[in-house]
Amino acid sequence: MTIASMKLRHQHVVLLGGTSGIGLATAEAALAVGASVSVVSSRSERVAKAVARLGDRVKGYTADLSNESAVRALFGQIGAFDHLVYSAGDSLRTGALADMDLATVRQIFEVRVFGAIAAVKHAAPYLRPGGSVVLTSGIASLRPQKGWAGLAGVCSANEGLTRALAVELAPIRVNLVSPGLVRTPLWDDLPELEREALYAASGAALPVGRVGEAEDLAQTYVYLMTNRYATGQTIIVDGGGVLV
Fold first, then answer.
1. What is the pLDDT confidence band of residue 99, given thresholds at 50, 70 and 90?
2. Is residue 224's pLDDT more than 80?
3. CA neighbours within 13 Å on the CB side: how many for 121?
4. What DSSP assignment string belongs to 141-192?
5. Pick from 27, 3, 19, 5: nearest CA to 134
6. Structural contact between residues 185 and 21, judged by C-beta atoms closer than 8 angstroms
7. CATH assignment of 3-235?
8. pLDDT tens digit string along 107-124?
9. What's the distance, CA 30 to chain centroid?
10. Residue 111 DSSP label
11. 10 Å Cβ neighbour count for 194?
């Protein structure tokens, strides 16, 4: 039995955005090291599918993460738990700032930033001693491309939020994972040929020679849940993307 499995055994992990992509992979990784898991999505069909895939130690909940009252009610329903993972987000929206109205920019922030704030606010009273929070951003905060102003703002906001919450909520630990390009359903709005070309070209440019898989990121979330001396940290997992 590994150190990680001993530390998560009999602990309860709640994953908002845990029904697909990185969140789903993290749910699987947490289960593999002994945790019980609750997954949350705004789409009931995704919740049902994830619960069927993940098995007996999983509960599923449907909640609108852009609605604070719904988030408050969610944690009242879940009750006490040990670790919160927030990886929720709508499909990626990019484009030149000059061509985007403010309503679109606000929508980018709604679930990814304000949803995270509401989740931590209402989850904190239910976190058991020794508990933790792991949020999510992306390397757009460090290496933004043209048309990524909104995403860069979201990622930077969550990184600052993580450091502030690590101080405010101590001794609850608060950390953040910053992924590079990862093969997940977030990119499914792109036509398949365009999407695969993006993965191939981007992966070839990285020191590791490929884009990430959700499972690559999941191990980092588990690490941050289990390392009791890590707080206020942003962990970049991008295949070396910030270096090139």
1. confident
2. yes
3. 14
4. GTSPPTT-HHHHHHHHHHHHHHHHHHHHSTTSEEEEEEE-SEESGGGTTS-H
5. 27
6. yes
7. 3.40.50.720
8. 889 999 999 999 999 999
9. 14
10. I
11. 10
